[in-house]
């Protein structure tokens, strides 16, 4: 199992998207989708502080977080990454997409690439995702990607587990 950080930040390239490291100059474009510990950013400064914490988590080996770049426009349309549990072979996969890019297949492809990376490169034995019961798009996405509902958490959150790991 090879946990972060890596000698070179892993970039994952497909025909349509690139998963790459988020640079500080990117942050102004993703304020609306910047979160840390479930708290959203309200300003560019908040988002920069959050990205600095995300980068520190990566350097400490507890997470890896990519920007999802649309190859046609070279702009970041969303983010995703693994959080918590990497040292135990578990990855909690979280994601967020800018609203004007939803429903276009970006997150399906990004999640597929991240799942493959988690299994092959990090050596994850379990991948989980947590969403709310009201987030119907996320529920459909997770189910389409072979996640199954494993348990109800506090309030209206549900945990899903990826089931294709051998």
UniProtKB/TrEMBL annotation:
List residues of the N-acetyltransferase domain.
17-164
- Which superkingdom, per the lineage? Bacteria
GO cellular component terms listed in the entry, alphabetical order: cytoplasm
Q: Which UniProt keywords apply?
A: Transferase
Q: Which PROSITE patterns match?
A: GNAT (PS51186)
The GO molecular function terms of this record are: protein-N-terminal-alanine acetyltransferase activity
Is Transferase among the key words of this record?
Answer: yes
Q: Does the keyword Transferase apply?
A: yes
Q: What is this protein called?
A: Ribosomal-protein-alanine N-acetyltransferase
């Amino acid at each position: 199992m090879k946990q972060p950080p890596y000698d070179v930040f892993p970039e994952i390239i497909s025909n349509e998207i690139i998963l790459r490291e988020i640079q500080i100059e990117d942050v102004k474009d993703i304020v609306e989708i910047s979160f840390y510990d479930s708290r959203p950013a309200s300003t560019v400064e908040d988002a920069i502080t959050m990205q600095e914490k995300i980068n520190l988590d990566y350097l400490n080996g507890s997470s890896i977080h990519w920007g999802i770049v649309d190859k046609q426009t070279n702009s970041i349309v969303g983010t995703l990454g693994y959080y918590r549990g990497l040292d135990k072979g578990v990855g909690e996969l979280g994601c967020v997409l800018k609203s004007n890019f939803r429903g276009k297949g970006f997150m399906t492809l990004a999640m597929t690439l991240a799942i493959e990376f988690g299994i092959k490169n990090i050596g994850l034995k379990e991948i989980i995702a947590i969403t709310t019961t009201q987030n119907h798009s996320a529920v459909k996405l997770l189910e389409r990607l072979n996640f199954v509902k494993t348990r109800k958490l506090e309030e209206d959150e549900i945990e899903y587990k990826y089931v294709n790991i051998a």
